[in-house]
Every structure is written in C-alpha cells, then in structure tokens.
C-alpha cells in the first residue's frame, strides 16, 4: 500500500482548513451533500472564531495520474548543504540544492496507482504551537502555505523552524491567487529568500476556487517519502515541544516487528472511554489485541480501531505507517498520555519511542468554581480537557477567599480564553479566573530559590533577595511604513531592539523586527495594540530566551475595604501607579452600583497608590410626593443622605464581582 503522511502549516488565516476542504472534495472523502466550510474544524468555537484550535487527522484515498521517477528529488528541509537554523538571528538564505529522498516505495510505480494520504490540519496561532509540533512528529512532509496577498508572516517562519527541526520535506505553496491584490512575484521572492528554493519549486493555488489544488496533491505524492523510507527512530527530532532528542537513536536490531505506535492526540468518549490517536511505527494492530501503554504500564483490550475520514471509520487492523485511532475502554484519564508508546502486552517492545518533551507553560492563572459545590465537576472537566489539550498544565490550589480550585498554565492569553470558553460550553461550569501571571524565580536571603506562579505565593519582602522574570525572543513582521509605530510600542513595553531584516524589496517592502521583551509585557494586550498600530498588518511570534532580574511588587485591589485576592497581580514597581489607575478605572465602569458608596483602591503593602469611588444606588424617595412645599422633598432626601452616610461609616458590605469585571482587569 502506498502511504503518504503530511500536514499543512501556515500563519493564522492563510487558508489551511480551506485547502484541506478542497483535498477532501478532490479525493471524494466527503460527499458533496455533506460538505461544509472548514469541515475539519469540528468545535463550535473554531467555526465561530474562524481559527483552528485542535489538530485534526483525516485519511484520504486518491488515485494519482502521474508517473513518479526513481529516485525522486525534493526540497528536503535541513539538508547538510542548506540547513536553516532554528534561530531568527541566523535566518539566512538556504542553498538551493535538493536532497534526494530514498527510492523505497516509489520504484516501478506507474500511472494510476492508488495512494493512502494521511493529512493532519494544524492551528496557525502561536498559542497552539504545541499542536503543530505534535503533528509534525507524526508525518514525513509538510505543505508550507503562504497567503499571496499577505506574504510571509511571523508564524509562517515559526512553524517552518519546527518543520526544519523534524527534517521534513517542505513543499512551498502560494494560496489565494484568485484575489485581485495577490502579488505572486513578491511573495515568491520572500519564500525564496526564506528557504532558498527555486521559483519553479513554488506551487500556486486557490483553495477557495480549487485552482491548482490537484497539482499540490500530486506534488505531495511525488515529493513526500513513504513512511518506510524515513526511519522515525533514527531521526534527530529535538526542539521545544518536539520529539526528545536526548534519547539516542535506536539501532537497526532493536527495530523488530514488535508493535510500537506513538500517541499524538487523545480525547474522552462518555461511552467508550479514552480514544487515542496514533501513528503506527512498527508492526500491526488488530481488534481484540491486548495492548500496553509503556509509560503508565496500563493494559487494555483494543475494543475498536480505525481511521478518521473525518468521522471515525472502523478498520480490521492498523499497519505500519498508518495514522488512526484506538478505543481502549479505559476510564482512568491518567493512564493514557500524549507521547506514550503503545505496544502488545504479550510481545512488548524493548524500547519506547522517544515521545514528546514536556511543554513549558508561559501564562498562569487560578481557575475556581463560582459555587464551591462545583469543585468535583471542575476537576473532572479539567482532566478531560487535558486529554485533548496536551499543552494545558494544572495543579490543585486553595485560596482563602475563593476556596478550592486549580492553578493552570497556558501558552498564551488566547489559550486561556479558549479554555474558559470550553469549560462553559462543554461542561456548563461558571468559573472565576484570577489575573494571569508569569512564573517568576524568587531568590531568598537564605540562598534558596522558589518559583512563584501567583501573587499569593510571593513571600514576605524581608525574605526576598531579588526576583527574576522570563524574557522572550520576539519576531514582528510589518510593512515598512509602520516600523516607527512598532518601535514606539515595543519601547513602551521594555523591549530591547536586536536587528531588522527585510523580506522583500520595492515600495511595499516588509520588515521583520527582532526584539527581546519581558513575557509580562506580552500577556495582556500587546497583540491587540500591535494590530492597532500596524492597521492590522502586523504579525507576532515569540519563544522563551532566559530569566533576568526585575523589580517586581505585589499590587492588591481593595473593594469595599476588602482585598480581592483574585484581582491581585505582580507588577513592575515603576509601572505600579499607571497600572493601578487603569485597573480601578475599569472596575469603576464595570462594577454594579450598591446601596452604599464603594471604595475601589489599588495598594502596595499598606500604601494606597490609586483609588476611585463608585457612587451609591439611590432610590427615588420623592416619587410618592405629588405636591406641597419643597421642604417635604428636602426632608426625605436628607433622611436618605443620613442613611447612606451611616452605611458608609460602617465601612463595608458584600460586593459581588461579575465576570465582566474580571475580563476588564485582564484587558486593562
């Protein structure tokens, strides 16, 4: 059987899911009457927001109309002569030489052979990079899709680096050529500058109209090597969130016929338990076989197996090189992990597959149920979301004010936003999310070091020697006209300029600015502000660099004389007044009025640095008067005034803080 495993990588909104739709139509995988836009984006959130959140595998059967020469040649990423290193500073033009792939699987192929094409559609937003990296580990080739109207964007380059680390076959494709403002020549020059290919290597298509889509699929068959010609275990697939390169490659003797399959995704089914998405590496698996998960030691019987088309289709067996699913019937969510190796219980493999490195969360927030009785439901919901969202990190947390909950780690603010939305939509849970924070390294006077993920964990000031915060390498791509605006925005956020590269020439030249910035500057509203100052043309990508010293203090928000623990945050000392003023101002606009005057204050230690007053809700006590002297009205108003004064003197009252107020603080 001729198998090709590939994925589509691109910046957000460059047409990945639409191109996948055309592939499904061209191969007849989905009937025309059942076809809809972005059919692989199965979540309601994905359809509503127009973005891909989850990787989605699908199998297509296709009869090719080309004759594949032997040996074939392709643009092979990471070749010895023209490799592109995984750092923006070293983004140089690659050598245009091609790297011959193995001829295994393509010798003697003639016109009209049938192929099994396993496609994985991937997200484009930087917050879901871990989904992309897991997809790349399960394939041999990648379509690098670039919008012909927008050109190379920051996440285009970020995803390309991930593919280079995996040593995949890269097929550059220009999309949206049917639009009147498409500039094929200019964007082709950018791609040539980026990966060093020849102009004739770049394919063009319109995923919307279907023009050129067949040629792209034929090129995938021609250039992407079959699974057996690219031994998985022998490749160095290192990198953040990638296959762990610390494990040595396996020797040919250890590559026996024992079953080994890599779990690259999973989800929970109420009736069938945990369902694992796997890439078969060695051997074959049949329904009824007893399997073992090598990391956890759990064993189970294969109740069902098959492939995605895009719905789940049962098969009698899964063979080497195929992508599919396994229904294990396991109800314990912790027994199946992404990156684990599946093998047979009776004839287990001697060595595990390397698996994935643990992803490092960038943003931390406390997640608490609004009602304390919902804690168990929240725990079960977070466990299930962890199955389908491997980048999610969580640990139990207790707050005196909010009760029991979880301290959760995310890759960015959009990741946090999607997580909250899924808790409500899929499980009906109302939650309180604390102000997001980054992970600070706190060095104590006794020489110890602790990692603080929330303001409540910060020790007493007298015990702190110094604090370090995470810094990121930031790449921003923008038209030349907006470079000044971007520089001004980044300098406000403590950014340090590194250098500038120009991706194209001419009047509409585009620049890639390299900066180093504190992560705390990025997690609130930086992306929104970047879109504003670049009129929507700017794009952003970032990755972790190191930790550096910072003057950070804990700022408390006090409402009606009570500190609201969930609104506390860690801020730079010199920015404390400005941030405090913004927060109390936004709370004044969003908090509902009470029967008494509500004081809203921002404080550091015992010092109030900013404050506002929310006036009391007043009943119209004069409504019952229909005439008489004005002194009657004054008498009632004075009586009301005395009552309000008495309530204010009492100092405080219970103030319910709505979700809108928390969101206002998050966005500042």
The CATH superfamily of the largest domain bears the name: P-loop containing nucleotide triphosphate hydrolases
**What is the level 1 CATH name of the largest domain?**
Alpha Beta
Major sheet size, sense and barrel closure:
8 strands, antiparallel
What Rg do the Cα atoms give?
28 Å
Across the major sheet, the strand order is: 13-12-18-9-10-17-14-15
User: Which stretches are low in confidence, meaning pLDDT under 50 for 5 or more residues running?
Assistant: 70-110, 229-256
Q: What is the molecular shape?
A: globular
CATH architecture of the largest domain: 3-Layer(aba) Sandwich
With helices defined by DSSP (H or I, 4 residues minimum), what is the helix count?
Answer: 14
CATH fold-level assignment of the largest domain:
Rossmann fold
Strand-pairing-aware structural class: alpha+beta
- The structural domain count equals 5
| Straight-line N-to-C gap | 57 Å
**Could you tell me the number of beta strands?**
33
Instruction: Give the averaged pLDDT, no decimals.
Output: 80
């Amino acid at each position: 059987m001729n198998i090709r495993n590939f994925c589509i990588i691109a910046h957000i909104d460059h047409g990945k899911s639409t191109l996948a739709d055309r592939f499904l139509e061209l191969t007849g995988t989905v009937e025309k009457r059942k076809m809809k836009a972005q059919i692989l984006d199965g979540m309601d959130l994905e359809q509503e927001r127009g973005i891909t959140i989850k990787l989605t595998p699908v199998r297509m059967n296709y009869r090719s109309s080309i004759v594949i020469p032997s040996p074939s040649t392709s643009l092979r990423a990471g070749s010895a002569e023209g490799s592109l290193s995984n750092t923006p500073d070293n983004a140089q033009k690659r050598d245009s030489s091609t790297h011959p792939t193995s001829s295994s699987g393509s010798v003697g192929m003639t016109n009209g052979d049938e192929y099994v094409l396993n496609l994985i559609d991937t997200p484009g937003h930087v917050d879901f990079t871990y989904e992309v990296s897991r997809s790349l580990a399960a394939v041999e080739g990648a379509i690098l899709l670039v919008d012909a109207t927008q050109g190379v964007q920051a996440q285009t380059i970020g995803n390309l680096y991930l593919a280079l680390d995996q040593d995949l076959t890269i097929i550059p494709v220009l999309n949206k050529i049917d639009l009147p403002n498409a500039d094929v020549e200019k964007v082709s020059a950018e791609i040539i500058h980026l990966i060093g290919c020849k102009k004739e290597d770049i394919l063009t298509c319109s995923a919307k109209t279907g023009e050129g889509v067949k040629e792209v699929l034929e090129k995938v068959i021609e250039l992407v090597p079959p699974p057996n010609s690219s031994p998985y275990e022998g490749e160095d697939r290192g990198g953040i969130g990638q296959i762990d390169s610390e494990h040595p490659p396996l020797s040919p003797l250890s590559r026996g016929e024992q079953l080994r399959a890599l779990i690259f995704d999973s989800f929970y089914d109420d009736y069938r338990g945990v369902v694992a998405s796997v890439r078969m590496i060695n051997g074959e698996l049949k329904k009824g076989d007893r399997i073992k998960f090598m990391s956890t030691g759990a064993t189970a019987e294969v109740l069902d197996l098959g492939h995605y088309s895009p719905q789940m289709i049962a098969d009698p067996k899964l063979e080497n090189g195929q992508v599919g699913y396994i229904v294990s019937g396991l109800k314990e969510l912790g027994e199946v992990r992404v990156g684990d190796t599946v093998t047979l219980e009776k004839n287990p493999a001697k060595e595990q597959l390397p698996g994935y490195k643990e992803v490092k969360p960038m943003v931390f927030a406390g997640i608490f149920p609004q009602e304390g009785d919902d804690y168990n439901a929240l725990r079960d919901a977070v466990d299930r979301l962890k199955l389908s969202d491997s980048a999610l990190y969580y640990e139990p947390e207790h707050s005196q004010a909010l009760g029991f909950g979880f301290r959760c780690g995310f890759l960015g603010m959009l990741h946090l936003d999607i997580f909250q939305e899924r808790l409500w939509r899929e499980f009906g849970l109302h939650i309180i999310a604390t102000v997001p924070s980054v992970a600070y390294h706190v060095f104590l006077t006794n020489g110890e070091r602790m990692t603080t993920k929330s303001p409540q964990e910060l020790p007493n000031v007298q015990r702190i020697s110094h604090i370090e915060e995470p810094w990121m390498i930031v790449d921003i791509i923008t038209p030349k006209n907006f470079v000044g605006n971007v520089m001004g925005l980044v300098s406000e956020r403590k950014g340090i300029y590194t250098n500038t590269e120009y991706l194209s020439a001419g009047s509409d030249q585009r620049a890639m600015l390299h900066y180093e910035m504190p992560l705390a500057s990025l997690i609130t509203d930086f992306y929104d502000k970047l879109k504003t100052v670049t009129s929507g043309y700017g794009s952003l990508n970032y990755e972790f660099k190191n930790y550096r010293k910072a003057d950070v203090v804990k700022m408390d928000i006090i409402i009606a004389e009570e500190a609201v623990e969930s609104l506390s945050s860690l801020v730079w000392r010199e920015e404390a007044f400005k941030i405090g003023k913004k927060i109390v101002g936004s709370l004044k606009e969003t908090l509902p009025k009470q029967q008494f005057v509500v004081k809203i204050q921002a404080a550091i230690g015992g010092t109030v640095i900013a404050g506002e007053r929310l006036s009391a809700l007043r009943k119209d006590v004069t409504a019952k008067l229909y005439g008489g002297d004005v002194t009657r009205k004054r008498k009632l108003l004075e009586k009301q005034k005395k009552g309000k004064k008495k309530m204010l003197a009492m100092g405080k009252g219970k103030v319910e803080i709505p979700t809108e107020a928390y969101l206002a603080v998050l966005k500042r």
